[in-house]
Every structure is written in C-alpha cells, then in structure tokens.
Amino acid sequence: MGRSPLPVVGCVLMVLGGLAALVVEALGLAPEVVATAGAVSVSTAYAWAVAARTGGRPVVFGLLALGIGIAVLVTGEDMLRSGAAVLTTSVSAVLAVLITVPAVKVVQAVREVLIAFAVAAVGAVAAIGFGPLLSLIRFEYTTLALALVIVFVLVYRLGAGLHGLGRRGLVVILGGGAVLALGLAYAELLREYGTPGLVAWLFDAADWSEEHLGAVPRPMQALLGIPMLAWGVHLRARRRQGWWACAFGVTGMVPIAHVLADPALSLTQVVLTELYSLIVGLVLGVLLIRADLLVSGSRGRRASRLEEESAVRPEAGRTQPLL
C-alpha cells in the first residue's frame, strides 16, 4: 500500500492463493497441511496490509505473522494454532474496517460494508484453517476483545483523539459502548441464569426463524457492528469523527469466524446466518444514515443533493496509508 502497485498485487495474490488452498483442503482434495499453509499466507498478507494501511512497518509485522505461521506448520502445537487463529480473526476484522473509504451516498456505504464483510470472511476462513482448539466461548470473547483494543488504538489516531470527538462523536462512543456492554452482559446472564420461561419470546422467535428461514441472525452483527460501520463510512465523508463509529464495525466482522467455528452449525446454516445478519444490519444502517441526515437538516431531494456535493472531506485511497 503505497506508490508502487507491486506490494498491493503481491498481497492480493497471497490472499487468493491462500484462499484457494483452504478451499481445496475443505473439499477433501489435499491434506490438512495445505489448509494451514493457506491460512499462513492469508494471515501474513493481512498483517502486512494493516501495518501498511496505518503507516506502520509492514515488513516487520508481515514477517512476524509469517514466523508465527511457520512455527505452526513446523511444530503443530495446539497453543500456537489457537493463538494464530485468534490473531488472524482479530486482525482480519480490523483490516475489514480500515480498508473502507468514505461513502458520500447511501449506496456507497452499502458497498463499503459488503467489501469489509468479504475481507473479514476470508480472514475468518483462514483463522479456522489453523484448526484452533479453544472453547467456542473463549474464542468469541478473546477475539472480540483483541479486535476492539487494536481498532480503538488505531482509531484514536485516525479520529483526531478524544479532544476531536465533539458532541456527535461522544454520542457515538457512548451509544455504541452501551449497546456492546448490554449485549455482552445479556448474553452472559442468559447463558448462566436464563430460563426458557424468562425469555420464552426470544426462544420462540429464534425457533421460528430456525424453522422457517433456516438460521438466526447474530444480534451483535445485525444490531451493532454492521449498522455502525455503514453509518461510520457515511459520516467519514463529512467528519473525521466517523472513524469512531467505524471502530464498532469490528463487532460485525469478528463473529463471522465465531459462526464458522460453531460445530453445531452446518455450512448452509453458516451462510444463512451471515446473510440474514448482513441484510438486517444493512437495513438498520441505511435507516441510521437517513435519521442522521434528517437531524442535520438534509430533507428533500434538493437538500440531499446539496449535502452530498458538500461532503468532500479528503482521505487516502483504499490502497494508500491513512497516516
């Protein structure tokens, strides 16, 4: 990611080659070591891309990821496999957010979410290719926490720090943080103390969706991560604080690996779960953008057109360093 296109081309080729290896092994046409090698290729390219995108040292971080991958290939240690899977999942979610560009129009915001989703999905496949042996709950919490820490450290610089938040940025952080905290707390309480009688309506809704639609959307993705990312890229075309909204987008990207790692779900259920989460999240994201435009006074076609024409905040291109 710079002036020369060669590093970008090399990164893309590594991702495509790694994905091909993962698919070949999944089809039973190659041994497990091929999937691990594919996962190493993707994780190395993603680590390099995150460092390059944030103006860091891509060679250093790329070699570090490659070293971890080689250690997994050589030793096959379970701890290394699990650690590599956690890192790959978290880095993939962060890259998915960082690779987006500002969206002037709503349709462009939808496009950016789809691109981010595709990037995170490839990373999720690579993470599972390492064959992690962590419990699913531990895998979920560890990857989500690590991704949030990384993205907020980076967004602190991209979003001009806390002093540049303003009223809208503060609302974004407090609102997103509240939804995240409530979602995690509710899930934990439900797992530990919830009974079917207490939340019968929730179980009934999930059962109905499972029976008639084939899967249930992931609440963290559909209600927080995807809508916030859609709104964030739209807001970034107008204000730098949009990066703070985008930061919560990792909560919509990390769960892709969680769904893939769930042994209770078939491939069809995995695809449907993510498809429904994406659809619901995009609908909510579009509504959030529309509500934001109404609050800012952009009502009517003429006002909307003038607002889009004035949304000219400069930002580096998709393959250029942001810092």
- The class by helix and strand makeup works out as mainly alpha
The profile of the biggest β sheet is: none
Distance between the termini: 12 Å
How big is the Rg? 20 Å
| Helix-strand pattern | HHHHHHHHHHHHHH
* Count of distinct structural domains: 1
Total helical elements? 14
The average pLDDT score comes to: 85
Overall outline: globular
In percent, how helical is the residue content? over 70%
Number of beta-strand segments: 0
Q: β content, as a range?
A: under 5%
Low-confidence parts, pLDDT < 50 over ≥5 residues? Answer: none
What does this structure look like?
The protein has one domain. 76% of the residues lie in helices and 0% in strands.
Provide keyphrases for this structure.
323 residues; mainly alpha; 0% strand; globular
SSE order and pairing:
Layout: H1 6-26, H2 32-53, H3 58-75, H4 78-98, H5 106-129, H6 136-158, H7 166-192, H8 200-212, H9 219-236, H10 242-247, H11 250-253, H12 255-261, H13 267-295, H14 300-310
Summarize the structure.
By secondary structure, this protein is mainly α. It is 76% helix and 0% strand.
